[in-house]
Design brief:
InterPro entries: Iah1-like, SGNH_hydro, SGNH_hydro_sf
Mean pLDDT: 82
Pfam families: Lipase_GDSL_2
Shape: globular
CATH topology of one domain: Rossmann fold
Strand order of the largest sheet: 2-1-3-4-5
Largest sheet: 5 strands, parallel
Protein name: SGNH hydrolase-type esterase domain-containing protein
């Protein structure tokens, strides 16, 4: 009887052991499976993090590029101030636009509405005080009106003589100065409403005179007019004066001429 009892007890213990082993196997298998999932999840997270880092780096690069563009834009905005800090611009109301659009320092501009080459000669003392390296002359528009040939002192030849006198007078005070003469610009057809003399035919004659004067005096002629040919979008409503973009074209063209001459 006792022996039978012991056998049953052994069978029960054996069954318990077998059940425990089975449960343990399932448990560890689950752990392994879960661990694999965890590992896979971790790899996925790492991959996602790598993607995020890539995006972050891309954004960082774009921001740096944007900052570089901003720096370039700022540089372009101030470049004319820097480039022309030792330059004096003489002219009329068109030249005054350099101040209005804040493209150069007001100190560097000597210009008044209605001025012509005769008026410029009276401003040589002021030029001398500034003592620039470069003088830029932008005359011709008002000269077309002034030198109308109605008397012997207001002929095209007189304009030529006065322009030469202006250049020579500047050089006598500032022997090392470089002089650049800007071509008078064409006008729109409605400019004649301002003055009957303001036609492209008349301006063409004065433009050629200035070109000849430059060749004779060793000044540099800067052909801005050809750069704005057929650009009606650059003109103000009066067909004479200009919008902002014209001044960029003018100053860039002048810059090219200065760099070529160096």
């Amino acid at each position: 009887m006792r022996c039978l009892y012991m056998k049953r007890l052994m069978l029960i213990l054996l069954s318990i052991i077998l059940i425990f082993i089975s449960i343990r196997g399932v448990f560890f298998s689950s752990i392994m499976i879960n661990d694999n999932k965890t590992i896979n999840k971790a790899v996925e997270v790492l991959n996602n993090n790598n993607d995020i880092e890539t995006v972050k780096n891309s954004i960082k690069l774009e921001k740096e590029k944007s900052k570089d563009k901003e720096k370039i834009q700022v540089s372009e905005e101030i470049s004319f101030y820097q480039l022309y800090k030792n330059t004096v611009f003489l002219g009329d109301s068109i030249t005054e636009g350099l101040i209005d659009y804040e493209l150069v320092n007001e100190y560097n501009v000597i210009a008044e509405k209605g001025d012509n080459v005769k008026d410029a000669i009276s401003k040589i003392d002021k030029i001398k005080q500034i003592n620039p390296e470069i003088v830029v002359l932008f005359y011709g528009m008002n000269d077309v009106i002034e030198f109308d040939g109605l008397n012997e002192n207001l002929t095209e030849d007189k304009f030529r003589e006065t322009y030469i006198s202006l250049i020579n007078s500047i050089r006598s005070e500032l022997p090392k100065v470089k002089i650049y003469a800007i071509s008078p610009t064409d006008v729109m057809s409605n400019a004649i409403n301002t003055n009957y003399r303001l036609t492209n035919e008349n301006i063409y004659k004065f433009r050629n005179i200035i070109k000849e004067v430059c060749a004779e005096t060793n000044a540099t002629y800067v052909d801005v007019n050809s750069k704005i040919s057929n650009r009606i979008d650059l003109y103000e409503g009066d067909g004479i004066h200009f919008k902002y973009e014209f001044y960029n074209i003018w100053l860039e063209t002048l810059k090219e001429s200065i760099l070529i001459g160096e």
